[in-house]
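Q: I'm a student working through a structural biology exercise. My instructor gave each of us a protein and asked us to get a predicted structure, then write a short paragraph describing it. Mine is Calcium-dependent protein kinase 1. I'm not confident about reading structure output yet, so if you can add a plain explanation after the tokens, that would really help. Here is the sequence I was given:
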Amino acid sequence: MDTKDQQIFQKIQETFSSTDIRTVYAFEKLIGGGHFGSVRIAHRITDPQVKYAVKSILKENIKKDVKLLEEELSILTQVDHPNIIKFHETYIDYRYVHIVMELSEGGELFEKIVEMHRFSEQQAASLMKKIISAVKHLHERAICHRDLKPENFLFSDKTVEAEIKLIDFGLSKRFGQVLDHASEKMHTIVGTPYYVAPEVLKGNYDFSCDVWSLGVILYIMLCGYPPFEGDNNKEIFRRVLQQKLEFDPDEWSEVSMEAKDLLEKMLQKEPAKRISAIDALKHPWFAISHSDKANLDKRIFQRLKDFKAPQRFQVEALMFLVNNITKELDFKSLREAFRAIDKKNTGLLSLTEIKGAFRECRVPEEDLEEIFKRLDHDQDGQINYSEFLAATVDRKKALTMQNLWFAFHHYDVDNSGFITEASLTEVFHREGKYLNQEQVHEIMAQADQENKGKISFEDFSKLMKELLDS
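A: Happy to help. First, here is the predicted structure for Calcium-dependent protein kinase 1. I'll explain a few features afterward.
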């Protein structure tokens, strides 16, 4: 890499790993292309069973837009939601930036729309609730996606109960400080013609442009075609800006007034009058999906109550497992519990929400505060999705010998048979986690109880099995 390239990619180079990805992953088949690159299926060389999607971006193609890539990577490391694609690691070499992500094999929402032609209101409400919740999670973090379209939503697998996942943050942007008073506006015309909001075409917009795009997606889900059509982009743009929203009686006579009311609020041409993601989720139409009537499984409550992971390394390894071994561990009931507790649909649990969910179980308040502190590993005052999964997963199923080997190989980066301070530093680098040497040293010192300067598989296994007795 020449010096100029090094300067351009310096921030990514400093944040992530410059290890050769081919020493960690073996690439399988090509499955697609997105902004500036290709996407391939890959597996860890040490474990061919677990598959990932790796997006490889040619540096030559992104030099001029490296800020967009920095933004995308920064966003991917921040978000954590059941309906947003899970980011794992990033590697940078002399030609490419490789982003390792969760693999979703159920196909695009776009393909599903083509196949079904139109969705029942119940199907549409159930999906749209999850989709808006994911977008709200972004907006809460002052992130605007700017390219919401059915091609950017994938199903996790081909089963009926598959989760829907928002992908591709290539055009996303963080701006403003807080959701309620985003101080600045964005001015770049981006997005895809059918889904682009009128104010984006005028070059002065904020978060509400995402709500417009979701309105277009919902409209298509309910009738099979977009609200503003045209033979070319210019024609589509003209109609987006000028044409009134219409519901053709031939397609819409069977659709409820509530659905049309929500669409009118989402597809309001004036952004100031448009419904927000927060208020859209409270709309009466969503009562049709019955998805928030999940009963809290008493075992989940018991696991939350009993969760004790005295060491940061135990938590890191457990979170690695719940985010990587998704096929073997049944997360359906955990996802439903998370959504049931997450009353505000932010993709984060507050102490108030935890208290509300467990009040019926008659747990003393002080215990709940203690439980909350134990779960909130990054001490940001909220429990994110991965923290919740780590605390509520069936630990007997998660900590099998096979899974422990899988996790051990992840931390033993040079295949020496040991985890060291240097290998932990490299893993945190791959994950884009900002830990200084002192913090890494502390994690290692806690885990290395015999002070050997390295952790064998036997030591690691013993450390993780402590979680079974807690």
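A: Here are two points you could use in your paragraph. The two ends are 50 Å apart (CA to CA). Residues 109-289 form a domain with the Transferase(Phosphotransferase); domain 1 fold (CATH 1.10.510.10). It's a good idea to check both against the output above yourself.
Q: Great, thank you!
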